[in-house]
Amino acid sequence: MDDTVDKHHEEAGARVVERFFPSIVVDCVRQHVAAKRCICATDPNYFAQLSPASVHSLKLQGGPMSPAEIEEFEKHPNIKEIVRVRYLDDAGKIAGMRTPDFAHYAPMLQRAVDTHCRVG
Fewer beta carbons under 10 A from the terminal one: N or C of the chain? Predict the structure, then answer.
């Protein structure tokens, strides 16, 4: 809440994962903020559910998209996946939700990295 400028975390995250994961994963990371901005512009119920911190960061990130921005964003070839991941990210913010620890997911992540690095 103390931030006064957008730190572009989506771009930083995309740069980290792009060496290890396929482009669809990188797109979901890179377009993470754009998805939030688009959904906020098109779904008033979504905006109403944002935490105060998320509303604050949305303002720093440019606020809800304009109609022209939405039209351009919706041209992205992975739009469905990007928006789906955004909703999954939000669902993971439920206080007290029990989830497996990192060790549960590590083998799946390692397989994805191994496959991408062999192919890429």
Answer: N
Cβ–Cβ under 8 Å, residues 5 and 12: no
The pair of three-digit structure tokens given for residue 102, joined into one six-digit string: 């990192």
Reported as a single tens digit per residue, the pLDDT across 33-49 is: 999 999 999 998 999 99
Burial of 75 (0-12, 13-18, 19+ CB in 10 A): exposed
Q: Which residues, in sequence order, are CB contacts of 69 under 8 Å at separation 6+?
A: 37, 38, 41
Mean pLDDT confidence for 72-85: 97
d(CA 111, CA 24): 16
Residue showing tokens 């930083």? 12
Is the distance from CB of 42 to CB of 63 less than 8 angstroms? Answer: no
DSSP code of residue 19:
T
Nearest to 50 by CA among 86, 7, 3, 4: 86
What is the 3-class SS of 58-117, one letter each residue? HHHCCCCCCHHHHHHHCCCCCHHHHHHHHHHHHHCCCCCCCCCCHHHHHHHHHHHHHHHH
